[in-house]
Amino acid sequence: MEKFVSDGLKLAYRVEGQGHPVLMIHGFGSTHAVNWVDTGWVKALVRAGYRVIMYDGRGHGQSDKPHDEDAYSLSLMAEDAVALLDHLGEPGADIVGYSMGAMVALVMAMNHPERVDRVAAAGVGENLLEPSREADSVADALLADSLKSVTTRMGRMFRAFADQNRQDREALAACWRAVRQPFPVDGLKNIARPVLVVAGGDGDQAGAP
């Protein structure tokens, strides 16, 4: 993968195909490969004539992994997405985000509407609108000595996912605590671009990163 610099961090990215650009932003604890390549999305979009732009978000995959919670605000991560478009010389793109990536995509559409053509926000739901979203159980699970000592279902799920993807768990814990702060819901009304929201009706993780 190639690298670009945003906010002093080196972030890994990958581009496939030719055509109208689609910037894809992965979910919490994941990578560009896990969310988009392994699932077949990249192959499908390239065949449909799109230029697919992917990256490993800060704290994830092959990108730099600060351990400071202040490094992981949604606004900063939205700036990373804009910096990648700048690096590639793309004035704008369709944005596809999953879970935490969907939150980043929405903030990007709020803060930089001129860089966003359309947004597909998957894995977010009404939980996103709740003013207080408890974060400690998952962060504690990520920092626990072992998976065996984690007792909450949600904590076990994210700890196992982090271990499976060989992630830096301290960086992920800092990221989780930051993105579980209240979402800037007032900004949603200012999004002027078309937005598709995709969320399961029965899942209890909708709105979680």
Detail the topology: elements first, then pairings.
Layout: E1 2-6, E2 9-16, E3 20-25, H1 32-37, H2 41-47, E4 50-55, H3 74-88, E5 93-98, H4 100-111, E6 116-122, H5 136-143, H6 153-164, H7 169-179, E7 195-198
Parallel strand pairs: 3-4, 3-5, 5-6, 6-7
Antiparallel strand pairs: 1-2, 2-4
Number of strands: 7
Query: What does the overall shape look like?
Result: globular
**Helical segment count:** 7
Could you give the distance between the termini? 24 Å
Specify Rg, calculated over alpha carbons: 16 Å
The CATH architecture name reads 3-Layer(aba) Sandwich
Instruction: Provide the β-strand percentage band.
Output: 15-25%
Helical coverage, percent range: 25-40%
Uncertain ranges: none
The H-level CATH homologous superfamily, spelled out, is: Alpha/Beta hydrolase fold, catalytic domain
CATH C-level category: Alpha Beta
Task: Describe the overall structure.
By secondary structure, the protein is an alpha/beta fold. The protein has a single domain (2-198), classed as Rossmann fold, CATH 3.40.50.1820. 34% of the residues lie in helices and 20% in strands. The protein has seven helices and seven strands; from the N terminus they run E-E-E-H-H-E-H-E-H-E-H-H-H-E. It has a seven-stranded mixed β-sheet with strand order 1-2-4-3-5-6-7, sandwiched between helices. A hairpin with a 2-residue loop joins strand 1 and strand 2 (9-16). Helix 5 (136-143) runs antiparallel to helix 7 (169-179). The chain is globular, with a radius of gyration of 16 Å. The two termini are 24 Å apart. The relative contact order is 0.17. The mean pLDDT is 91.
